[in-house]
Amino acid sequence: MIQAIDVCKSFDGRLVLDNISAQFEPGKTNLIIGQSGSGKTVLLKSLVGLHQIDSGRIMYGDICFNQSSLKEKRQIRQEMGMIFQGGALLDASTVEENVRFPLDLFTDMSTKEKKERVEFCLCRVNIQDANTKFPSELSGGMVKRVAIARAIVMNPKYLFCDEPNSGLDPKTSVMIDNLIKEITEEYNITTIVNTHDMNSVMEIGDTIIFIHHGKKWWQGTKDDILHSDNKELERFVFASAMAKKVKSATCVQHINATDVGK
């Protein structure tokens, strides 16, 4: 379990996280939502230690991560998996090399053991016969699946996902959502997802935290959203739904225009 307790973070005198407290449970998909600039990305980066918080505590079990020694932080980080917005694969490395990278960096496993672990993780995300391909040869959905395979190759206790559906079509987005949820439940991982995709929220949101102007404005489940009387949350949900419709309509117009040009 991960806890944020009274977390504050400022940049150049501007308060970005204002006394945020939250609890993220293992075996569940814990979602952080909010408008651009609300502070949700800063919160995610603070949880993994990419930002040093000004005050408060970030707890991994009974260990205060932000006050830990470098050795303790290193040990915890080896239990983390990260899925970045663009996949963040190494362009000059093959699929197999990308997934194996954490094993090369942090373990003393033999070459045979590494290969077996990579194969297992690639099969788990339903990627076969792509070991020697480079990221430029993959579709957007395949890039995200390779990123997930790399994120779980070290058997993480904690999984952090920053906009995992960014740039994907609706069908592929659902597939990535389902994969993240399946892996979370299967391995009892504490998964935290930073997203603005309401489809993801309603599909896999076990626990949802809504950040508004740097404050934790609302917390509940995907079912609670439907009955919430929180005005700011309602506006966010409505705006997100409208943005989704506009995006879908734009895609249809683009397809029609392409057909006309043929």
From TrEMBL:
An example of a GO molecular function for this protein is: ATP hydrolysis activity
Keywords in alphabetical order: ATP-binding, Nucleotide-binding, Transport
PROSITE patterns listed in its UniProt record: ABC_TRANSPORTER_2
By its UniProt entry, which InterPro entries does this protein fall under? AAA+_ATPase, ABC_transporter-like_ATP-bd, P-loop_NTPase
Q: Which domain of life is it from?
A: Bacteria
Q: Which residues form the ABC transporter domain?
A: 2-238
Spell out the PANTHER family in the cross-references: INTERMEMBRANE PHOSPHOLIPID TRANSPORT SYSTEM ATP-BINDING PROTEIN MLAF, PROTEIN TRIGALACTOSYLDIACYLGLYCEROL 3, CHLOROPLASTIC
What name has this protein been given in UniProt?
A: Methionine ABC transporter ATP-binding protein
> Which species is this record about?
Mucinivorans hirudinis
